[in-house]
Design a protein that fits this description.
The protein has helices spanning 15-25, 38-45, 53-61, 82-88, 102-112, 131-139, 191-198, 203-209, 215-222, 270-286, 289-305, 338-343, and strands spanning 3-8, 30-36, 68-72, 92-96, 115-119, 143-151, 166-177, 225-229, 236-240, 249-253, 319-322, 330-334, 348-352. With 355 residues, the protein is α/β, with parallel strands linked by helices. The termini are far apart. It folds into two domains: 3-133, 3-Layer(aba) Sandwich (Rossmann fold), CATH 3.40.50; 142-352, Ribosomal Protein S5, domain 2 (2-Layer Sandwich), CATH 3.30.230. The protein is elongated. Strands 6, 7, 8, 9, 10, 11, 12 and 13 form an eight-stranded antiparallel β-sheet that branches. It has twelve helices and 13 strands.
Length: 355
């Protein structure tokens, strides 16, 4: 009989775990699953398990491909199963190819004469999900703001990042939820980042996976008016509640959906974009609508330079630009006062969202 052994936290069982167990079981005739017990999980990861050890063990035992379940209590990080492993002397230790402790496990197998098998990633039967993502789905937000940006857009895309550059944006209300979405789709307002957040996903990584930047989910999670340092990951430089923008922003639907991923490779004036970000930062620091309008107009000039169509002028507005980089969606119009904004026809009134 060929005995196979696997180990992990398995804190919240999901389909990815089951697929791994099935593939490991297929390597032999008898599968032992080891999970780190509550004390070890706390020691190594600083958190309590979602289920008591006896509940977790019972769930694992109920799986048809699992023959034996043990709770690891070893002190070595990544090798909490070691004492039981030495006692049981299985024939095979199976791991996934992204196991961060794979090297330690392979050394242990060499010492004990056990076969070390690294299972390659196979196409998942279901969309992959992590334990962290499941927790986020359960405890995550039920509504989220969207965003507008004023200057520095594109400098949040890692390959276009500039040291010393800034991205300046603002979370806006009305908020959205999975049931209520009071905006057009593909609107240039960070909707994909908000959608990922509402579904319990890593919204920053979701945007980076699309080949675009991180600014949308960053400000959606942070709220307020934010100044971010350009770079590969979000780093907040400055934050305000945005009260100086109350009553001063309106959105106009351009009649065309935007496509930021499809526009990433276009030529554009990154020097002008960087200067717009610097001016927008100054505007936030001084809470100046006039200075912010200057930054927005610089951003708009960069958009026109890359081929976006001219936006209609609206009486009373002091600046305008496309909200996203995808040649469509909503356009942002900036006004000096609530009275001027509310007198403008055909706009969606939005307000800064803080907290």
């Amino acid at each position: 009989m060929v005995k196979v052994f696997v180990s992990g936290c398995y804190d919240i069982l999901h389909a990815g775990h089951l697929q791994f167990f099935e593939e490991a079981r297929a390597l032999g005739d008898y599968l032992t699953v080891s999970f780190a017990n509550e004390d070890i999980l706390w020691k190594h990861k600083g958190r309590r398990p979602s289920l008591p050890d006896d509940h977790k063990a019972e769930l694992l035992r109920s799986l048809v491909m699992v023959d034996h379940v043990v709770a690891g209590n070893g002190e070595r990080k990544g090798l909490d199963f070691e004492p039981i492993f030495r006692e049981l002397k299985p024939d095979i230790l199976a791991v996934t190819e992204d196991d961060q402790f794979g090297e330690l496990k392979e050394i242990l197998c060499q010492e004990l004469g056990c076969r070390y098998v690294c299972l390659p990633k196979t196409p998942p039967k279901f969309e992959p999900i992590s334990t962290t993502a499941i927790v986020n789905r359960i405890s995550g937000v039920t509504e989220a703001p969207l965003r507008v940006d004023f200057g520095g857009g594109w400098l949040d895309v890692p390959k276009y990042a500039r040291k010393g550059g800034f991205i300046v944006n603002c979370a806006i209300s009305p908020k959205v939820s999975l049931q209520d979405w009071p905006y057009e789709q593909k609107a240039g307002l960070g909707g994909s980042g908000a959608w990922a957040l509402l579904n319990g996903k890593d919204s920053v990584q979701s945007e980076l996976d699309l080949g675009v930047g991180w600014q949308d989910p960053a400000v959606i999670r942070e709220t307020g008016v934010c100044v971010w340092k350009s770079g590969e990951k979000p780093r907040l430089d400055l934050k305000r509640d945005g009260a100086f923008l109350s009553g001063c922003m309106g959105l106009l639907w351009t009649g065309k959906q935007h496509d930021t991923p499809g526009s990433v490779g276009f030529e554009r004036d990154y020097d002008l974009i960087e200067r717009a970000g610097a001016v927008a930062k100054e505007a936030v620091m001084t809470e100046s609508i006039a200075k912010l309008a200057e930054a927005v107009l610089m951003s708009y000039s960069a958009q026109l330079g890359e081929g976006m169509k001219d936006l209609p002028k609206i009486m009373g507005s002091v600046a305008r630009k496309y909200c996203g980089g995808g040649h469509g969606g909503y356009a942002l119009y900036l006004f000096p006062s609530r009275e001027a904004r509310d007198a403008a026809p055909g706009l969606v009134a939005v307000e800064p969202c803080y907290g």
